[in-house]
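Batch job 17 of 40 flagged for manual review because the log was empty.
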Amino acid sequence: MRTRLLLFAVCLTTILNVNAQSDEELPKNSEQLKVLKTQMKQGDLHAQYLLGYCYMTGISGVVTQSQSEGKRLIKKAADAGNADACRLMYKMDPQRYYDYRLTAEKLYTEDGGGEACYYMAELYANDKRQCQRWLKTSLKKGYLRARMALESIYNNDWSGSSTSFESWVNGILAVGESEDVELKLEKPKAEIKLFSDVDQNLPETIARDNENTVALVIGNENYISVPPVEFALNDASMFAEYCKKVLGLPDQNVIFIPDVTYGALVGVMADIKNIAETFPDSTMNLIFYYAGHGIPNEQTKDAYLMPVDASPQKTNICYPTSKLIKDLSSTKARQIVVLLDACFSGAQRGEGVLAENRGVAIKANVDAPQGRMVLFSSAMGDETAWPYKEKGHGLFTYFLLKKLQQTGGSTTLDDLGDYLVMQVRRQSALQLKRQTPTITPSTSIGESWRSWQLK
């Protein structure tokens, strides 16, 4: 029960992306860091909170992680009456620092603005009804991040439902409302679209008892500074459905996040570690799926996952694959399967490259898996991960879903790997392209991975 409650809270907390006021406020270089420090010395409590957050998480090339220094600064800001710092102190240890939550609630309520209501929703992440009420209140006050959070909750809980996003939101009472207030909103971008054979007639498992497996599913399609990744949301949405209906994971074990920002990605990776701690040693299985842009650092050739609020020229706010592998392996899960439908050459899904100052793709360095991990990557070296336009999916994900559909999820990783390599190579060649998936196990597991199954 504790694991289920934690998974529910993680979904809401991750969707809200609440660790910092906004990613735009975090320093991107040493000069911006100096400005933040100067503001803190001048008595700016919000600057002190942001600086503490930077030390808590670390920012590649800007701030070296120091959780002790980060906590010291945040606590100092909280004790001086900064609501955001109080909120973060409470998140660090809810039982020990509950008084900080009470202070944060008082300050946010007194503020009453859209952003304050948004953070009140985060404080109620364990109470779905109250959380959604505060989000609607925030939205009514014009705070756009609340709308994104509501869309994400809708996509996670109501994907495939006949209930429209507009009707769902209208059914939520904002704080202080005695009757529904209609809001005219667009339908969510992440709704599942039925394009192909793999999107229908899923071979559903009768028992949803795969309780020891947790899946983190991310689909990044709509980027702020670069072209979208065609079909990425459909890829991730359908893989999440396969995790539930075909692989038999309970709903609360599948964490689906559309269009993830840097802050949300950092937050959910920390939450995955917390979830792992609720399982006895080596009893959890972990699936990580990502569809979206990958990007190389042009100088170091290191590979990164690219959040939707990042840019190719600023990899300091992208997520290194080396850190991803380290974070996942630190869970000490019994089986870790990583599925990346992204290329790290700087190419787009389709034609062209992401960086404007470069006209060719480059070969990035992706770190070797660690722990009990198998890494499936959709493309080799400097290749591109192509879309399968006729099917409405990425080429890699289409055949991944096809194999799960054909076998009802009962396929070994060895058979799955062979199938993906053969089918993706063949179909890309028929399109006069080149794409070769790779399967890389960690050295510590030898050949045992070949008999592993996702189900």
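Reviewer: the log was empty due to a logging misconfiguration, but the result itself is present. The radius of gyration is 22 Å. Unflagging and moving on to job 18.
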